[in-house]
Amino acid sequence: MKAAITGVGAYTPEDILTNAQLAEMVDTTDEWIMTRIGIKERHILKGEGLGSSYMGERAVKELLQKTNTAPGEVDALICATVTPDHVFPATANIISDKAGIKNAFSFDINAGCSGFLYSLEAGSKLITSGHYKKVVIVGADKMSAITDYTDRSTCPIFGDAAGAVMLEPSVNGYGIQDAILHSDGAGRKHLHQKAGGSVKPPTQQTVANHEHYIYQEGQHVFKWAVSKMADVSAEMMKKHNITSETLDWLVPHQANMRIIEATAKRMGLSREQVMINIQRYGNTTDATLPLCLYEWEKKLKPGDNIILATFGAGFTWGSMYVKWSYNGKDMQQQTGLE
Questions:
Q1: Which of 67, 247, 256, 318 has the largest CB neighbor count within 10 A?
Q2: 50: helix, coil or strand?
Q3: Which residues contact 291 (CB under 8 A, 6 or more apart)?
C-alpha cells in the first residue's frame, strides 16, 4: 500500500512586504536581496490575535472543499510549524477545532524547515498501517512573528503562509514511494532562537536583547544546505534509477535561490523542471513545499515523478520521491478554484 497526495490547499496573507519597503526599514537594497537571496517580496500576516492556526485553518478548509471531504471524515491532522500559536496546546489541535475536524487526533512536528517533509513521512505511515484513510498534513508558519526587522541579514528572508495536503491510500501504486531523512543536532548553534524555551525562559532582559527572534549564521547554514540538500536529492535519484530525463519535477525548499540552483545543477535539471516561487513569497519555512505543489497543481499529471527536497534548523534535511496520483488541472476545473 502507498499513501497518495489527493489534494492541495494553501493560504497566503493579503499584505505584501516589498524589498523597497524593507530598504526603508534597514540598510539594504533590492539589488542586495535579489543577488544574495532571490526574493522580491513576501506576504505578512497582520491583525491582532492572528497566528499560524489562522492560516492553517484556511488552507485546510480549501483542501476539504477541493477533495469533497467532510471534516468528520478526517482521521488525523499533523501540523508542521516552528511558530505555534502557543507553547501548548498543539497548533494542530487548534486548526482541527477551527476547521470542524472533531473525529481526528492531531499533533505538531517541529523539524525546522524540514517539518513538512517529516510530517508527510509520518502521515504516510499512518496510511500504510491500514488503520487510517484520510490524513491531513499542514505546514503553517508566521515567520514575521520571530523575525527581527532591525537585522538586515535575516529580515529579507522570511514570509508567512500555510499549505495543506490530503493523504489517502493509493489505488494505483502512485503516491509516496520513498523518503530519506537526516538530522544532525550539532548544527543547532548556527540557526536557532536563543530565548523563550526551557533552557532560557523569557525575561525582560531576553526581550530587550532581541533573543526571541531568529538567530542565523548565514555562511554556515548556506554551506550545509547546499551540500546536504543536493546530496540527498542525488542519492534519491540514484537509489531509484531516476535520471534528469525521467524526473518531471524537483520541489525544493525555498530558502535561497542559490541553494535551489545548486541542487538542480547537481541533479542535472533544467530550470523548467524546478518549482520556484521564492521571489514572491520568500522562505515560508514549513509552507514552502505545499505552496509549490499548490501553485503547480494544474500542471501535475498521474505518474509524474517528483522529488521534494528540504533543509532546515536542527540541522534537518531530506528528500522524498513521489509519483503524483491525480490530474491537477481536472481537480481545479471541477472545484472552480483555478
A1: 318
A2: coil
A3: 10, 12, 161, 163, 254, 277, 281, 284
Which uninterrupted H or E stretch holds 295? helix 288-296
Residues annotated catalytic, as ranges: 113, 253, 283
H or E element that contains 17: strand 16-18
N residues, the chain: 338
pLDDT tens digit sequence for 111-162: 999 999 999 999 999 999 999 999 999 999 999 999 999 999 999 999 999 9
* Cβ-proximal residues to 124 (8 Å cutoff; 6+ apart), any chain: 2, 3, 167, 175, 176, 179
Torsional sign, CA 21, 141, 111, 324:
negative
Cell numbers representing residue 304 in the block: 509524474
- Name the residue among 74, 78, 77, 82 with its Cα closest to residue 52: 82
State the Cα–Cα distance between residues 229 and 319, nearest whole angstrom: 8
Decide: helix, strand or coil at residue 276.
coil
- Short-list 232, 237, 256, 263, CA closest to 248: 237
Contact present, 308 and 323 (Cβ < 8 Å): no
Q: What is the CA radius of gyration of the chain?
A: 19
| Higher-confidence position of 334 and 233 | 233
Q: Model-level pTM greater than 0.90?
A: yes
**C-alpha grid cell, residue 246:** 525521467
Q: How far apart are CA 143 and CA 147, in angstroms?
A: 6
Please name each of the domains of the chain with its CATH number: 3-174 (3.40.47.10), 176-335 (3.40.47.10)
Give the mean pLDDT of 74-101. Answer: 98
What letter would DSSP give residue 192?
E
pLDDT tens, position by position, 216-258: 999 999 999 999 999 999 999 999 999 999 999 999 999 999 9
